[in-house]
Amino acid sequence: PSVLAPLQLAVTLSPYTSISSPLFLRTLQDGHAATYWLSLQPRIGDSPIPLLTTWKGQLCARLNVTSEAALSWYLARARRLQQALGATYMVFEGAEGNAFLEQAVPPPAELEGDRYTRVLAEALATLGNATIISAGARSSHLPLFIQMSPLRSDWSHAGLKGVIPSVLHYSLLGYNFFIPDAVGGSLAGDTPEDMELYVRWLQIVTFLPVMAFSTPPWLCCDAWVLNLTHRCIQRHRDFVVPLLIKYSSEWLSSGYPIFRPAWWLSPMDPAAFTIEDEFLIGDEVLVAPVTDKGQRWRDIYLPGEGHLWMDTNTAHVFDGGTILRNYSAGLAEVPVFVK
């Protein structure tokens, strides 16, 4: 119960419907297909034909975001579903791409380029600030979470090593409120079997905006990991969330990202530009997780010459602009420094 209590339900939707679904067939029969779904412009005297595309291997029609009636209808259905299921988060995937250009059809002016993604994001923002989208385009000002790409359940750059570079990429683009892939990775859809990978992944997401789980620790790991998960959730709530709130204000006033690379504090040090496995929260917290299997130590670059950094685990203080060689990072700990 102590771990379950803070967990909240997310429901995933998309702007697609299968052409074999009763919903799509009903709009065809009612003559509303062109209102609700993106359609090809008819020749004179003909009826509009829904533009068919594929989504997750099925032939589908896509929501017509240029129609107020379609958007209102879609948002009302989403709200009803959220209420019926008691879901905290609503995830909307499949907003990216241009269905017209994918089929070499010139899009209408209102849907040129990435406008579909932008218009849908603006509409979804009306559902509340626990709404998640999988793609953003000129929408970083909206109160939405961005779902980061799914990752493999392994130690590669397509898995765990890809988390921190993605965090810095999203944040520097202005998307500070992202949701990393579920602890342990989700691309294969399998239950993560590597307990060490699960723990190291958990330690990184503790310091990110949202901790997401598709596999709870009691399904893949032992009681020790379950207790660690509980401690990480508590640390996220007590230590990380106040930092995010603090640096959100700075982001709004100055445009500075919340999550920053090491070179942010050491812009003249070439070594800082090679660091891809550390990140800063604002200018005051440095997180240096382990991303290699079997390692219980790592080199840590402390940015900002002239600054002092304190290890939150040991209270030892070190100079900025230096590298700590073979620094201890046991399986139960993640090196975190405060300036």
UniProtKB/TrEMBL annotation:
> What SUPFAM superfamilies does the annotation carry?
(Trans)glycosidases (SSF51445), Glycosyl hydrolase domain (SSF51011)
Q: Which domain of life is it from?
A: Eukaryota
Q: Which residues form the Glycosyl hydrolase family 31 C-terminal domain?
A: 255-339
Family matches, as Pfam families? Glyco_hydro_31_3rd
- For this entry, the protein name equals SP15 protein
